[in-house]
Amino acid sequence: MQNDSGRRKFLKSFLSVGAAIPFLSSPPPYMAKNPIRKKGKQSLILTSRGKGGNWGEKVLTNGWQAYEKTGDMMDGVIGGANVVELDPTDMSVGYGGLPNEDGVVQLDSSVMHGPTYNAGAVGALEHIKTASKIARLVMERSDHVMLVGEGALDFALAHGFKKENLLTEEARVRWLQWKENLSDSDDWFPRKDGDYKREIRQTGTINVLGIDENGDIFGVTTTSGLSYKIPGRVGDSPIIGAGLYVDNDVGACGATGRGEAVMKICGSFLVVENMRRGMSPKEAIENACKRIVDHNHGKVNFNDQFTALNKDGECYRGQIRGYGKGAGPEYSIATKDGVETLRGGSFLK
Ligand code: GLY
Q: Which residues are catalytic?
C-alpha cells in the first residue's frame, strides 16, 4: 500500500481545529414552564436528552410507562435509560457505543435510590447492553456499591445476563478510522475515501432523574464513556457524587461531558450540596460550572453539563460552554400531562 502521510497530516490538522468546535443547530423555541410539584404530589421524570434524535420523548415515554406499570420510580428512571442503552443508533451509551482504543466497548453506569440512600455502580463493563440494570443489581443484590471489569461481568452472568457483542459495524468502522489516523509514524493507513469529519471524540451520556408522588428521588447515569479511551479508563458516570448524586432530602443531579473534569470537583455532589444550602437547581449548576472553569484557570476547551432537580420538582440543565450563539443544552421532563422539552443555559457564552 502506498504511504499517504501527506494527506493524513492535512486531515489531522483540519480535525484538530474542527474537534474543538462542535456545532449546535439553532435552538428550538422555549417550550414550557419548568414544572414545580404541587404540594409534593406530582411525579416527574427528568432526562438530559432533548429533541435531538427524539431521545427525550422516547426515553421519557418508556420511563413513564415503566413507572406507571409498577409504581416504582426506580423502574421509571432505569426504563428510560434502557431505551438509549439498547438502541444501536446512539453511539455514546450501551449497545452501539464507540469502543476504547482496542476496539472494545466498555460501559459505565450508576444508580441511586433516595428512600434508602443506597447506590450501585459498574465500571468498564463489557458484553452487557444495559449497564444500568447491572448497577441496580449491585445495589440491590450485593453488599457493595461498585463492581468493575471482569468482576462486574461475572456478577451480571451470575444473575442470568448473557454475553453479547456490543460493537456494531458502524462503531467498528469509526474506531478503525480513528485508529488509522492517530499517527503518521505507525503502520496503519486510512481508506482514501474515509469520512474524516466523524473522528471527534465524544463523552455522550444520559442522566435520568425521577421524583415520585411521595417525594422520593431516584437517579441513573449510563454511558459508553469517552470514545477511544485507554482500556480500563472509567469516567465520572459510575462514580457516586461525580456522574450522579441523589439525596432524598434535597434533590438529585447527573453529569454529562468530560468526566475527568466532573470527577475532580465531585460535580453532582457539589450541585446537590449547593441546593441543600438554598440554591435553585440553576444557581447550583452555574456554581459547579464556575468551579470547573476556575480550577482550570479559565482555560476550558471541553464541555460539561449538569442536570438537576430539587425536592420541589424544580428542574434545570446547564453547561459550561455555549457554542454557536451561546445556547444552553436541552432537557426533557415527563409528568402525567406528557413530555416537554426545555432549554437550559450556558455558563460561558
Ligand atoms: N461523562 C462521561 C465520561 O466522561 O465518561
A: 205
Q: What's the pLDDT tens digit per position in 89-101?
A: 999 999 999 999 9
CA of 259, closest atom in ligand 1 = 4
Give the E-state strand segments of the chain in sequence order.
44-47, 107-113, 118-125, 146-148, 205-211, 217-223, 244-247, 251-257, 304-310, 315-321, 330-335, 338-343, 345-348
pLDDT at 324 over 90: no
| Nine-digit cell string for 292 | 470547573
Measured in degrees and rounded to the nearest 5, phi and psi for residue 247 equal -125, 115
Q: Are 93 and 84 in contact (CB under 8 A)?
A: yes
Q: Which residues contact 218 (CB under 8 A, 6 or more apart)?
A: 73, 74, 76, 77, 111, 112, 113, 114, 209, 210, 211, 212, 246, 252
CA 173 to centroid of ligand 1, rounded, Å: 22
Q: Is 223 in the pocket of ligand 1 (CB under 6 A)?
A: yes
Give residue-wise pLDDT tens across range 126-141.
999 999 999 999 999 9
Could you tell me the residue ranges of all domains in the chain? 4-167+202-346
Q: Which amino acid is at 3?
A: N
Distance from the CA of 109 to the center of ligand 1, in angstroms?
A: 10
How many Cβ atoms sit within 10 Å of the Cβ of residue 168? 18
Please give the distance, rounded to the nearest whole angstrom, from the Cα atom of residue 235 to the centre of ligand 1.
5
Tell me the pLDDT band of 5, cut-offs 50, 70 and 90.
Answer: very low
User: Cell 473522528 belongs to which residue?
Assistant: 199
Residues ≥6 apart with Cβ < 8 Å to 69: 75
For residue 71, report the distance from its CA to the centre of ligand 1, in Å: 30
pLDDT tens for 105-116 read 999 999 999 999
pLDDT by residue (tens digit) across 45-100?
Answer: 999 999 999 999 999 999 999 999 999 999 999 999 999 999 999 999 999 999 99
pTM for this predicted structure: 0.89
> Is the distance from the beta carbon of residue 47 to the nearest atom of ligand 1 less than 6 Å?
no
The architecture in CATH of the region 4-167+202-346 reads 4-Layer Sandwich (3.60)
Q: Which of 100, 125, 226 to mutate to test the pocket of ligand 1 (most atoms within 8 A of CB)?
A: 226
